[in-house]
Amino acid sequence: MLTVALAACAASAGSGTGSSGQGAAGARGGASSSGQAASGGSAANAGDQGAGGSMSGSDNNLGAGSGGSSAGSGGGGGSSTGSGAGSTGGTKGSGGNGAGGGMGTSGGTGMGGTGGGSVGKCSETMPPVTDYSMNGPYMPTTIQNTGPSGMYTIVQPTTLGQNGFKHPIATWGNGITTTPSYYPNLLNLIASHGFVVIAANSSSVTTQNMTDGLDWMIMQNGMSGQYQDKLDAHCLVAIGYSLGGGAAVGAGAHPDIVTTVSFHGVTGNSAGLKAPLLLFTSETDTFVTPSGFVTPTFNASVVQTFYATLTKAGDPSNQGHLLPVSILDPNCPEYAPALAWLRLWVYGDQGGKTYFYGGSSATLCKAPWTCQTKMPGGSAQMSGFQ
């Protein structure tokens, strides 16, 4: 039984990072992350120039800057600071000029205002959806025994590269004792929204497993085969659960990661992250406890971080640590906000921002949830982002 197998690992997990939880995160330094301009800087109406907010390139923030003089159809870009050239801002407003991104030192694309460009280093955009628990426009398919040494599973859109679309790459980390087959609903949901998900078949996944999967997919993009020139090799995400959640946080140090999601994860090396982090846990999780494992990851994070806790009222069946395991709970309440977070940072889809933004009115800050947030260099807040 899965519960028994998980319990057998509790002693080895202890109160620290857990077995292999941190992997090889510190090995990849040097690449500056992309600048994030403010979402509030929308372009002005006819004749006016919208002003975009500016952000620090090392922060990867999606905070609000100064808005344009009035709302327009194009988002004003923002300036970034880091180690390379600044990027282009949002599109033009109706009859006016969208504000271009200032000269900075980060190599990625800034976050435009409403109607602006995609986030981070990603090249594709998608319009908002109304229900983030529903499958997207792509029919997912699963490929077994592929990847490095044939030891991975890939869940991806059945048809790749339609109309020149470049698919973002996600690396998935399994919970201890499990394989990708335990998470069909979640992985299919992510793939149906255009992601190519590579998952190590290991039941004791490490950060190295996860980064190896990413690097293999990047290599395939430049080789003859089904993936050639169909992937966005600079738009990567790391996602994982339990032991794989800690490994995903470690994999977040990869220079082309644009966001990381950890479901009920053991403590990961969040000090090495370069892009925003989303953490999930629940009051009913008595295996990887919030205080023992997840809170330390939050406290050590150096990037924009949202920490969502499902209360006992939100888990009436008392699934606890097993909430994200699809074969046990196909309607996990954490799936929809996780997808909204991924689409926000990858596609610039602002439709799900209400999960995380709006102060105390943010969806994941109201019953049956509680939340904490932090911005780089700032203190923890018991409310959503503003």
Outline of this structure?
The protein has 386 residues and is an alpha/beta fold.
What does this structure look like?
It is built from 7 helices and 9 strands; from the N terminus they run H-H-E-E-E-H-E-H-E-H-E-E-H-E-H-E. It has helices spanning 2-8, 10-13, 184-192, 207-221, 243-251, 290-300, 335-347; strands at 140-146, 152-157, 167-173, 196-200, 231-241, 257-263, 277-282, 305-310, 369-374. The chain has a 9-stranded mixed sheet with strand order 1-2-4-3-5-6-7-8-9, with helices on both faces. The longest helix has 15 residues, at 207-221. Residues 1-120 have low confidence and may be disordered.
Uncertain segments:
1-120
Q: What class would the helix/strand composition place it in?
A: alpha/beta
Largest sheet: 9 strands, mixed
Which architecture name of the largest domain does CATH use? 3-Layer(aba) Sandwich
Number of helices: 7
CATH topology of the largest domain: Rossmann fold
Strand order of the largest sheet: 1-2-4-3-5-6-7-8-9
Integer count of domains? 2
User: What is the general shape?
Assistant: globular
Order of helices and strands: HHEEEHEHEHEEHEHE
Span of the ends, CA to CA: 43 Å
User: Radius of gyration, Cα only, in angstroms?
Assistant: 20 Å
| CATH homologous superfamily designation of the largest domain | Alpha/Beta hydrolase fold, catalytic domain
Question: Overall mean pLDDT score?
Answer: 78
Number of strands: 9
Top-tier CATH class of the largest domain:
Alpha Beta
Name the beta content range.
Answer: 15-25%
User: How much helix, percentage-wise, in residues?
Assistant: 10-25%
